[in-house]
Fold this protein.
Amino acid sequence: MSEAMEVDSGKKQKVLTWTEKYRPKTLDDIAHQEEVVTMLKGALQGKDLPHLLFYGPPGTGKTSTALAFCRQLFPSSIFRDRVLDLNASDERGISVVRQKIQAFSKTTLGSSNKEDVLRLKIIILDEVDAMTREAQAAMRRVIEDFSKTTRFILICNYVSRLIPPVVSRCAKFRFKSLPAEVQVQRLRTICDAEGTPMSEDELKQVMEYSEGDLRRAVCTLQSLAPILKNGDESARNCYLRGSSDALLISDLCKTLPSSDVPQIISLTKSITKSCTGVAFIRRCFQQMLDDNLINDENIAVMGKLVAVCEKRILDGCDLENNLLDFLLTLRETIR
Amino acid sequence: MALWVDKYRPKELLGKDGVDYHLEQAKHLKFLSADCMPHLLFCGPSGAGKKTRIKCLLRELYGVGVDKTQLIMKAFTTPSNRKLEIQTVSSNYHVEMTPSDVGIYDRVVVQDLVKEMAQTSQIEASSQKSFKVVVLCEADSLTRDAQHGLRRTMEKYANNCKIVLCCESLSRIIEPLQSRCIIINVPAPTDVEVEKVLRKVIQKENLNMPDSVLQRIVEKSEGNLRRAILMTEAIKMENEGGIPANAQIPVPEWEVYIQETARLILQKQTNDMALKVRERLYEVLSRLIPPHVIFKKLLEYLLPSCPSSIVREVVSEAAKFEHRLLLGQKPIFHLEAFVIAFMEIYLTNASKPK
């Protein structure tokens, strides 16, 4: 029986995505977020723990940190009693705040246990920025009333989407985008563990493509792994180029200043056939800035246009028209 | 009799019945399915072959069993106690659905149905893959709430459930979801590729089609392979006896009508003409042509006749009014406003000495 179990778990291991497999298990594994790690380690040793608010771009380790901290704080036997993890995949309307969260906060802790460092319960609310304002407002009193026994860890991408009263009740920690060296180092560890040969340059390309998002980098790495193991040199180069967007953009930067209006129109048509959406405009603008194609006075004009286009597209407009608008204006300003 | 589009849909990723273009990508997909499959996000314009690739991928994973599908209506209850149903297509191994069918309640679908499916694991894990696949179509019209709802589900139950998202544009997919998936970009096929596929179909059907017609179909399809194949079949149906070299490709009536309208706008820029154009626009709208399509076509016909110096201005105005059209209620206002704005730009430019 036990043998069968082992086989089973081995199989599971194989199916695990790398992002899960290499998710940091302890606070020491968390990359690059020193402030919050120092503070949490203090809490592990019995110092005071405030309510926490983690915010920052995707893939910087917010959820991982919260989970790793709770795992270290509570032995797995009492983990379920002490931690309530709610995220956007759960119903989180105002009624849930009133019932579930409040009920969990109200429960008093059982008889003291020696392995217990902090006599606290923790409620992790992931993706708080997706909660309605009413639900957030309902949390205000809950956070304060039960602060004797309960700590909240709120996690979100945009702190501006939270109502100020909630923000002011927590200690804020911003999770920084991971700098290049840290990411490369992480990716290197994973590569070594998985036996995927990769050069420093190739890792850098993966990293650039992911724009500071470690999860995306790991995800990309995993999708590349079978190809890399296979060792087909041409295929390797093809995928490492990253998205096809990059190629289109560098082409565009070269041809745009010299092309006339009909050319741009047909160019736009062909771009919309293959590109991936609004990110294209943003990246294009970035590239132009990097290449110093736009002079200082026009940066403001173009920046504004990028913002306007992005808004329109996110509201549901067609990419083609906005891209055309962007490119035509860009061409005029470059001249 | 099946339509040609379905009859000649590729059955597998690589090989005899394999896909006809993006071969490198097909190889990549094959690798992905062989190893541990991550969540996937397919994006690309319509008619580029996203669904075809998803189907091929599923077949690669589970064999022909995925073709035995059945329609199941799933019922669920919203928090406000409304009972709704959503149609799902499922086989033993996968489920396919379009959560945006139920509008703003797609959040509930994601939170209840998808999560429930993700939580239950495959029964016979020993004989097959240990995970199943949930295909969510039209992911770009999922509401923000629904997309947020997917985030943790995708991570927590990644072991026994892989999610495949299918959308036209990445712009409306929130960053956190993008970072959880491998993005598979399926660009539209080039004209050469479309032609190749069409030739293959024609050859298999023993059809005699003049090259000039074929060329025109390729041009008209604008990289939409499905449209290209449908057009080919339509032409064959219309000309039973054999296709003449000058065979007309059927153009929808309303397109001709809009083209005519564009000509009128360019002809004269006066109040009377504006009134006339309004009538015509009402006419098209009453035929239930979606306003944004009218807008696009109108601009398409207007632009070539504009002097290059005003193109930028026209396009800016077009983008502005298109956005307003989307936010507003009555399409006619915005269409008309654009027409007037265009006339204004056109006139001032014409009166300017060159």
Q: What stands out?
A: The first helix of chain B runs from residue 4 to 7. Residues 4-185 of chain B form a domain with the Rossmann fold fold (CATH 3.40.50.300). Chain B has three domains: 4-185, 191-239, 253-351.
